Amino acid sequence: MLVLNCSTKLLMLEKILKNHFPESLKVYGAVMNINRGNPFQKEVVLDSWPDFKAVITRRQREAETDNLDHYTNAYAVFYKDVRAYQQLLEEHDVINWNQVFQIQGLQSELYDASKAVANSKQLDIKLTSFKAVHFSPVSSLPDTSFLMGSSPRLTYLSVADADLLNRTWSRGGNEQCLRYIAKLISCFPSVCVRDDKGNPVSWSITDQFATMCHGYTLPDHRRKGYSRLVAITLARKLQSRGFPSQGNVLDDNMASISLLKSVHAEFLPCRFHRLILTPKPFSDQAHL
Fold first, then answer.
1. Has residue 202 got a pLDDT over 80?
2. Cis before 219 (ω within 30)
3. How far apart are CA 4 and CA 57, in angstroms?
4. What are residue 249's DSSP bridge partners?
5. What does the DSSP 8-state code read for residue 72?
6. How far is it, in rounded angstroms, from Cα 205 to Cα 237?
7. Phi, psi of 186, rounded to the nearest 5 degrees
8. What sections of the chain are H helices per DSSP?
9. Does residue 234 surpass a pLDDT of 90?
């Protein structure tokens, strides 16, 4: 195991990962954030350098953690050889197996390789698989002509909005998610539409892997073009900062799939896999 903490080498890694799109997108997004201030206190672990076969991004060991917070305790994975990834998992002190955590990646063997090691350590593992999406370059500002007057208005989220997002996110509704969303809002780009009272009615945020997520419009405000406006605006905001505008969508979320098709987003050939791993002592407490 090698922890890569040299800023020059981390910039080199960013360039190398760019040559392995789309499978490297999650790790690439995490490394980009590390190289731009590291607001989520991440670090990079590899099997070797510079000719690595597997790379994992993880929370820095000195960062404060909650053992039930799989949202923050998240690893992104890219490998050139799945055996090298599995060997890295098996090494001492690469993964904190004593807490609930998640692993994200865009490679098909990720689940089986992770499960083999998790089973040996008696952790439960839950897989969710998504369509992976990439937004084409947005060269012009989206049409906002239908936002007449002072409201509704297009703006960004604040930490004060975190409770609303926690209550409306299918993955949320708990203390760990609330803290996580507040951290995302404070660290990364977001977009929202606010009503005449200043309340968010449609929004999307960016996660620690530079992925667009939690795109949501309140039921009473749907079919007004807000979701499309928010998605295009956030994609453009990320692209203007040099980030790839990527996202994920469940196969049965037809409304979001139709929206993505309408803005000519590219559905990638690989799928996004999110694994949530739970040690048995936490199986009754974890929010999955």
1. yes
2. no
3. 10
4. 131
5. T
6. 11
7. -75, -20
8. 7-18, 25-34, 82-90, 110-120, 162-168, 175-187, 226-240, 254-262
9. yes
Strand, coil or helix: 191: strand
Give the DSSP letter of residue 281.
G
Mean pLDDT of the chain: 92
* CA dihedral (116, 83, 10, 232) positive or negative: negative
Q: Give yes or no for residue 141 having a pLDDT over 80.
A: no
Of 242, 224, 84, nearest in space to 154 by CA: 224
Token readout for 229 is 């406006």
Chain centroid, CA 115 distance in Å:
21
CB within 8 Å of 228: residues ≥ 6 apart: 142, 259, 262, 263
Return contacts of 55-62, CB within 8 angstroms, 24+ apart. 55/13, 55/17, 55/27, 55/79, 56/27, 56/85, 56/88, 56/94, 57/27, 57/30, 57/31, 58/94, 58/95
The strand pair at 101-105 and 266-279 is best described as: antiparallel
> With 0-12 CB in 10 A as exposed, 13-18 as middle and 19+ as buried, what is 113?
buried
Angle between helices 254-262 and 226-240 (to 10 degrees): 60
Burial classification of residue 140, based on how many CB atoms lie within 10 Å of its CB (0-12 exposed, 13-18 middle, 19 or more buried): exposed
Nearest to 80 by CA among 24, 9, 133: 24
Peptide linkage before 22 cis (omega within 30 of 0): yes
**The pTM of the whole model exceeds 0.90:** yes
Tokens 């928010």 belong to residue: 230
> How far apart are alpha carbons 7 and 92 in whole angstroms?
25
**What SS3 class is residue 88?**
helix
Nearest 5 degrees, angle CA 243-CA 246-CA 29? 45
Question: Tokens in use for 272?
Answer: 């996004």
